[in-house]
Amino acid sequence: MSEKQDKTLKDFTIGGMHYKTTLTDKFNNRKQYEEPDTNRVLAFIPGTIVKIMVKHGQSVSEGEPLLLLEAMKMRNIIIAPKKGKIKNVRVKKNELVSRNQLLIEMA
């Protein structure tokens, strides 16, 4: 334990159980979890957009294919995370995309 670490007991809840414990500097300085925004479809892996199956203004159902992303010679179908309308398609066919790049915005 570092010298400057706070040694007071803190309330900590995990899995519905409540504890009193000291927290490490690593835990206190971690990146906080953020709930994913289901209106933004992001690339989960770098690759190439092979096919775009939707267009601006189109209504889609949850689980409906949106794009075909090829990465490491594997084709991945990117599906709609929820029912909604396509607000903006941010990529073009044959475009190289990076991990976490915004592909589609939904409303």
List keywords for this structure.
107 residues; mainly beta; OB fold (Dihydrolipoamide Acetyltransferase, E2P); four-stranded antiparallel β-sheet; 1 helix
Topology (SSEs and partners):
Blueprint: E1 10-14, E2 17-21, H1 25-28, E3 40-42, E4 47-52, E5 59-60, E6 65-71, E7 74-79, E8 84-89, E9 96-97, E10 102-106
Antiparallel strand pairs: 1-2, 3-10, 4-6, 4-9, 5-8, 6-7, 8-10
Describe what this molecule looks like in 3D.
β1 (10-14) and β2 (17-21) form a beta hairpin. This protein has one helix spanning 25-28, and strands at 10-14, 17-21, 40-42, 47-52, 59-60, 65-71, 74-79, 84-89, 96-97, 102-106. The protein has a four-stranded antiparallel beta sheet with strand order 3-10-8-5, with no helix packed on it. A four-stranded antiparallel beta sheet has the order 7-6-4-9, with no helix packed on it. The chain contains one helix and ten strands; from the N terminus they run ββαββββββββ. The chain is mostly beta strands and 107 residues long. The longest helix has 4 residues, at 25-28. The chain has a domain at 40-106: RNA polymerase II/Efflux pump adaptor protein, barrel-sandwich hybrid domain (OB fold (Dihydrolipoamide Acetyltransferase, E2P), Beta Barrel), CATH 2.40.50.100.
